[in-house]
Amino acid sequence: MEEKMLSAGRGALFLTALSGVSQLLGFGYRVLLSRMAGAEVMGLYQLIMPVYSVLLSLTAVGLTAAISNLTSQYLALRNGKAVGQTVRTCLRIFFLALIPLGTGVILSSDAISVHLLGDARTQLGLMLLVPCVALTGVENFHKHVFYGSGLVRAPAVVELLEQFVRTLAVLGLLWLFLPQYPERVVGLIVCGMVICEVFSSCTLVVLYRRRLARLKGQGPGEPGRIRRRRVCSIALPVGLNALLGNLLGAANATLIPQKLVEGGVERSQAVSQFGVVCGMTMPMLSLPIVFLGALNLVLVPRLARAAALGREGEVRRLVGRAMSAVSLLTLPAMSLMVVVGPDLGRAMFHQEGVGEHLIPLAAVMAMSCFCSVLASALNGVGGQRAVAAISLLGGVIQLLFTLALVPLPGVGMGGYVAGAVVSTALELVLCLYWIRRRTGVRLELFQWMTAPALASLLSALVGNLLFRMLKDEGLSPVCAGVATLAFALLLYLAALQAQGVELRSMIRRRG
Fold first, then answer.
1. Which among 334, 341, 344 has a CA at the least distance from the CA of 367?
2. By C-alpha distance, which of 30, 25, 15, 18 is closest to 345?
3. What does each C-alpha distance from 6 to 11, 153, 476 come to in angstroms?
4. Sign of dihedral through CA atoms 449, 319, 316, 328?
5. Taking a C-beta distance cutoff of 8 angstroms, is the pair 328, 452 a contact?
6. Cis ω on the peptide bond leading into residue 407 (within 30° of 0)?
7. What separation in angstroms does the CA of 374 have from each of 316, 320, 328?
8. Do residues 491 and 462 lie in contact, with contact meaning Cβ atoms separated by under 8 Å?
9. How far apart are CA 401 and CA 399, in angstroms?
10. Which residues contact 184 (CB under 8 A, 6 or more apart)?
11. How far is it, in rounded angstroms, from Cα 247 to Cα 57?
12. Nearest 10 degrees: CA dihedral of 385, 388, 389, 392?
């Protein structure tokens, strides 16, 4: 462990930079994938991904959290030998759970695809998900040993390389074998994912053995019974929470095409609409928020440390700075995506429907960013139960909207979008309530939301007018979009200043 660990600030910047590159690469991959595969295949792909998430929740998610937490504890006690023991224990538990579950999925793939997912064309993709889950679990275990050790460079770089491998593998397979039936196209996409996971899991295992091998002889280790009890005490509640959330997400994703069909939409068109909204529009809106993952990754341990030391003022300051950063970056990004989104979607995905529901979905994405940071803050100060309850409540409300509104003629995907708006807004209100109750932080709603929202609205309205004028004058959408974004950014900063909000004071305030 002689390698110098990154500080929290440098680690956040490093992760943000790599996340930005990875996000751009991943978005380009999704654009090319959507063009090559089409909206219907993207809808089928979106149907099987919740199954992937459920399998990971049942087998790996809780164990991953246990490895990360226990690695930090063992290294603080200079008991590196226990780190290796914990990794081996988690791998054994993982495969003991995955082998019967995976076998059951493969043997029941026909029934699952027809009766649960509602489309027999998902069967091949389901069967190929099982080896993908196995490799993902091995990758995540070794990745979180690095994160628990405070070493972020190696896993971050591997994650970036993983994007390159996935892009080359999936698009290469499609280029070689298209055209094919939709079921085989989904299978080719999952095969590319398997190839990618082979690369990342093998690379991280090698890095783990080479860079952390010296920890094996450090410390006395830990008896197996105690180690297994500690692993289970962390893994079971985390895994259960993730499982319930993913089950709700899987039920929602499965029901949307079925309810659209009940409302009179043809099956292929229903799957295409689902693919456009969840496989194209939402990923496009998530493009500008590359900073969020790095912010949460750094925020949680800093809040946990400050809370453990009883530094309530520092806890409030960190929460305030995180909320300020999210509002200053997310709100203008979403407002400008509303302006250029329809042209951007048509140019990239060749789908007219990408611009539909853009305004409410942008609002959902902005509120989700606030919820994500507030949930991380609550996790950092011991509010995991509140986070779990809020998340499950939001999932239930979204599911009820899907059941009630999506089948109505003339509503369709609008019912799903309405559910996303209501459920996310409720989650945001509850997160604000609980963060105030847990930390005593003052809710500076004008600084956090009102002022940035008004400035974003002004820049979006003026930007929309300017964008249309420039296109009418003969400029290409790309040139018009770049000019509009530059002007709208300056107008946004000026509008904040006019409201008495200074960026430097918001980010650096002592709270």
1. 334
2. 30
3. 5, 8, 43
4. negative
5. yes
6. no
7. 12, 10, 15
8. yes
9. 5
10. 124, 177
11. 9
12. -170
pLDDT at 504: 60
Buried b / exposed e over 222-237, threshold 16 CB at 10 Å, is: beeeebbebbbebbee
Q: For residues 288 and 456, is the Cβ–Cβ distance under 8 A?
A: no
Q: Which H or E run includes 20? A: helix 8-37
State pTM to two decimals: 0.72
Q: Which own/partner contact pairs does 503-506 have at CB distance under 8 Å and 24+ positions apart?
A: 503/328, 506/324, 506/328, 506/447
Vertex 115: Cα angle to 113 and 116 (nearest 5): 70
- 271 vs 67: CA distance, rounded Å: 38
Helix intervals (H) in 381-450: 384-405, 413-439, 445
Angle formed at CA 86 by CA 84 and CA 88, multiple of 5 degrees: 70
pLDDT in tens, 200-211: 999 999 988 887
Q: What is the pLDDT of residues 418-434, one digit of tens each?
A: 999 999 999 999 999 99
Distance CA 285, CA 358 (A): 9
- The residue type found at 309 is L
Contact 221, 81 (CB under 8 A): yes
Provide the angle, in degrees to the nearest 10, between the axes of the packed helices 413-439 and 312-349: 160
* 260 Cβ neighbours under 8 A, 6+ residues apart: 269, 270, 273, 274, 406, 407, 412, 413
Q: Give tens-digit pLDDT for 265-324.
A: 887 788 777 777 777 777 777 766 666 666 676 676 667 667 766 778 888 888 888 888
The larger pLDDT score, comparing residue 396 to residue 478, is at 396
Output the six-digit token pair for 350: 């060749």
pLDDT > 90 in the chain, percent: 14
Count CB neighbours of 179 within 10 A.
8
**Cα 204 from Cα 284, distance rounded (Å):** 30
Task: Give the number of residues written for the chain.
Answer: 511
pLDDT (tens digit per residue) in 307-355: 766 778 888 888 888 888 888 888 888 888 887 777 777 766 666 666 6
Q: How many CA atoms lie within 13 A of 362 on its CB side?
A: 24
